[in-house]
User: Fold this.
Amino acid sequence: MGTETTLPTDEIDRDAVLRYAYYIALSRFDPHRANGSNDKPWLFPAYDRLVHVNSAGETVPGLAESWEFEEEGTVLLLNLRSGVVFHDGEVFNAEAVKANIERGQTLEGSAVRSLLAVITDVEIVDDLTVRLKLTSPNASLPAVLSTRAGAMISPAAFDNEDLDVFPVGAGAYRVVEHIVDDRVIYERFEDYWDVENTMLAGIEMVLLVDVQTRLNAMQTGQIDAAELETIQIPDIERAGLNFKVAPDVSFGLVQFNSALRPEFADPRVMRAINHAIDREAITEGVFFGFARPAVQPTPEGYFSNNPDYGPDYYEYNPELAKQLLTEAGYPDGFSFEMQTTTGPSRIATTEAIQAMLGEIGLTVSVNPIAGAGPFLDNVYGSRTAESWMLAWGGRPDPSITLGLLFTEGAFNNPGNRTTERVTELYQRSISTFDPAERTAVLQELSAAIVEDALDVVVLYFPDKVVAWNDRVQNIDLWASGRPELRGVSMTKE
Assistant:
């Protein structure tokens, strides 16, 4: 869990506060209602989950010390960690697990309901053991429990009116100050169970949307670490900062609400849009080559990626796109709105797509929304957006992403559009435990998603950059695309 400390203990400054800049605001601090994967860097210092992940994306023990499937995969047994307390002093135990899962399943506005729907009952075996009874075998459930769905809130705080602003978790750090849409101040929770991963006195997480502002803040010493962009690498090197570049499983996409606009329910329209977008032009023009075009929701080389469906499966072909629109009954095209956030690469990508779709007769009005909370509420909360461009945060298991975006009733599928083939393959993907067999099913599912042209148009997989000054130790890029700060430490000045 976390990264291994590389310094002798006497060289670590346990009084240091890490100043970390992030670029997307927190939607809310209630993990069951937080509606975006970009909430994770804000949530996870305060909220431990039943299962954790390491920077490579592998599941590791969290509040559950171990787990195992029973009864042919229809029961997941969790052995809970002893001696854990919440920030309000309440004890973590099996009753807390049961209460949290049932809250996530029933809470109005829950963003994790569909992830927990497979659980039919939480049986308390004893104070530190629970059995999750499932509707069917689900190989991805431990990974699901490493996300917001597995975050544990103190049951005594369920009815707190300010839970969206001040969390009450069992994480390594507790929140002492929260200035909405500006910064969160965390301090070390002295009763935390994992002392080796609380080497900081605290964390100051600062919202800096503009990437140049983040770099400037690092150069002037106001910030210790931040995610930056690959186009800044020459400036990062000139500033003498440490940095790392790596890909992850997060990706850029455009999504369409076919429930709101029935035009998008026609596969011919969606194939037309796919053929109208020049993915390589976006990766070169917006990301200067530090991104790879894609049509699948997992990257090339990843075990669930189908190698027969490369980025040229939907070749850039405006004439074919026009033909498909005509066949669908829209020879003169139609108009719709596309929302995005105000980040420079998001706006640039959305405007590029606007121009490309304009070439085939689709008139797109771009609506940048300031703040991740309002944007995600439009998209996945009230579901009032017609279409949107965003970066999908990686998940620790591909079935989670595929289920959230492409299955009926899923939180992140406002159009509720799927196919029988996708549904059947998804169910097989979560009920297959043999690794080789599961890989084959996931690759077949990925192919079906591409061929069936559903509501999501995958665009690219970008490289990520994290930079830090010389005092920061053990920081990393996370395969999930969403940083955690477990195990980070700082040297003495």
About this structure: The first helix runs from residue 40 to 43.
